[in-house]
Every structure is written in C-alpha cells, then in structure tokens.
From TrEMBL:
It is a multi-pass membrane protein. The chain crosses the membrane at residues 29-46, 58-75, 112-129, 135-153, 173-193, 205-223, 235-254. It is found in: Cell membrane. The keyword Transmembrane helix applies. It comes from Halomonas tibetensis. The keyword Membrane applies. Keywords: Cell membrane, Membrane, Repeat, Transmembrane, Transmembrane helix, Transport. Its main location: membrane. Residues 3-127, 138-276 form the EamA domain. SUPFAM superfamilies: Multidrug resistance efflux transporter EmrE (SSF103481). This is Carboxylate/amino acid/amine transporter.
Length: 289
C-alpha cells in the first residue's frame, strides 16, 4: 500500500504540471513518446534479458503496450470529443474494471470488491461531476477504452507476477514493459504527431524530464509493484484516490478553483471505501485462522 500511496502523491503533481505547462502548448504524441523513451532509459541499464523466458518477455511488453501506449492514445483522443470535466468524470469507472478483470484472470468472483469499488466510483463522481453535454456517447466509449487499458495493464501485471519467482528482482526485467509501450507510442507520433509543436522553453523540457524519468519511469514501476502486494479491492480504490489528491495539489500550489465541500465529501467516501475494504480483509483473515 505504501507504494500506491507514494505514487498517488507523485502523480497528483503530474496532472497539474501537464495542465499548466504542456497541454495546448506541446504536441501530446511527442510528450507521450518522450515520457516513455525517458522511462525506458531509467530501466535499460538494469535489464537482464536472461531472467525471463521468451513468453514472459512478450507478456510484459504486451502489458506495457496496453497500459501505457494504447491507453495514452485513447486518453488524448478523448479530449477532442469531450470537455475536460466530462473526461475527468468518465475516468472514475476504472475501479470497476479492475475488480471484474482481476476476478476473471484469477478465476473467482468477489462481490465485496465490486461493492467497495462502486463506493470509490461514487466518491470520485461526487468530486468530479459537473454536468454533461449532449452527443457525448462516442467520447464516453473512448475514455472507457483508456480505462480498460489501464485496468488490464495493472491486473495483467498482477497475474504475470504471480507466475514469477518471488526472488526475481523486478527492476531487472521491467524495461521490457517500456519497450513494449515504445512499440505503440513511437509509430503513433510518427503518424499523428505535430512536429511544429515541440517544447520551446527550458521549463517545458524540464517538466518532460520530470514526467518521463520520475512520474512515468519510477512511478509506473512502483505502482505495478504495489499492485502485486495488495488485494484487488484496495488496488481498485487507490485508482480513484488520485482524484482528491490531484485537486488538492492544484488548489494549494496553483490556486485553481475547487469545490471544497465536494472535495472533502468525495474524499471521505473514497477513504471510507478503503477502510471498509481493509476491515473486510482482516475479518476474512481471522476467520481463516
């Protein structure tokens, strides 16, 4: 859980950095490609190819391609179809996908996880809901594509990690994850990128370096590592804990308007769902003794 909490704080800053310094100024496909290239450079020096079999390497590359590559393409396209509040609102369904996919991949069904994930969605909705415009169905489906990719990447890594020896140093193989993502984002930039909208200031390059080396590099490694050390319910809830964290950072540092009542209420619902999930896990463990 410590990994997930730490990355939540890290990514909370990233949203504001993107919104203030990159969005509408730097080509989104270039920004995504640069982030993944830098993240790959962080882990390539540690790569030991012989630690994974060919099938496992391909699986890890596939997870990176889906969780980072395809997810980012869906996510950035959604802003062409929806207003920002609508995009933010529609991302709150990720916890539901995580619980359902995790049960499907591990061959079980846990209704309680679905309940706590739904509470996390409710809390995020309280914070983010700001009305909807007509004609949003296509945009909704595109955002759900991004949500499904992000959820599938997390749950898929949990499933793959369960097959690997506990003694395997995860940082020595994680470069395959980013190499898989590069197989998606580099062709996307080549085909769809706008080379006339590259970074023009040292600040923009600095933000990209931070997002690539730290937020994408260290962040995704620790997030996926944390995903293997908690239950599916806690992972699902933490996916929406980023919402109040991001709003708090934006409010405190950049003084953007935020509905504090809705922020506190929604955050309390998300925290309550996490508490409820932990209580249920502990009770089940005691019953099993």
């Amino acid at each position: 859980m410590g990994y997930l909490v730490g990355v939540t704080v890290l990514w909370a800053f990233s949203f504001s950095l993107i919104g203030v310094y990159l969005a509408g100024q730097v080509d989104s496909y270039f920004a995504v490609a640069m982030r993944v290239v830098l993240a790959a450079l962080v882990f390539l020096p540690f790569l030991r190819p012989g630690l994974l079999r060919g099938r496992q390497r391909l699986a890890l590359m596939g997870l990176g391609a889906v969780q980072l590559g395809v997810m980012y393409i869906f996510f950035y396209q959604s802003f062409l179809l929806l207003s920002v509040p609508e995009v933010l609102l529609f991302t709150i369904f990720t916890p539901l996908y995580i619980t359902l996919l995790d049960d499907a991949l591990f061959g079980r069904f846990t209704p309680f996880y679905l309940l706590t994930a739904a509470l996390a969605v409710l809390g995020a909705g309280v914070i983010r809901y700001d009305g909807l415009d007509s004609g949003f169905l296509l945009g909704f489906l595109v955002v759900q594509g991004a949500n499904l990719c992000f959820a599938l990447g997390q749950v898929g890594y949990r499933r793959l990690s369960a097959e690997l020896p506990e003694s395997l140093p995860r940082h020595s193989v994680f470069a395959w994850f980013y190499l898989g993502a590069l197989g998606v984002v580099l062709p996307a930039f080549a085909l769809l990128g706008n080379t006339s909208a590259l970074p023009t200031t040292g600040l923009q390059w600095g933000v990209l370096l931070w997002l690539g080396l730290v937020a994408s590099g260290v962040g995704y490694f620790l997030w996926n590592l944390g995903a293997t050390r908690v239950d599916a319910g806690a992972l699902a809830i933490m996916n929406n804990a980023l919402i109040p964290a991001g709003l708090v950072v934006n409010l405190v540092i950049w003084n953007r308007d935020a509905d504090l009542v809705r922020l506190v209420l929604g955050g309390a619902i998300i925290a309550g769902s996490l508490w409820l999930n932990e209580r249920w896990i502990k009770r089940r463990a005691l019953q099993a003794v």
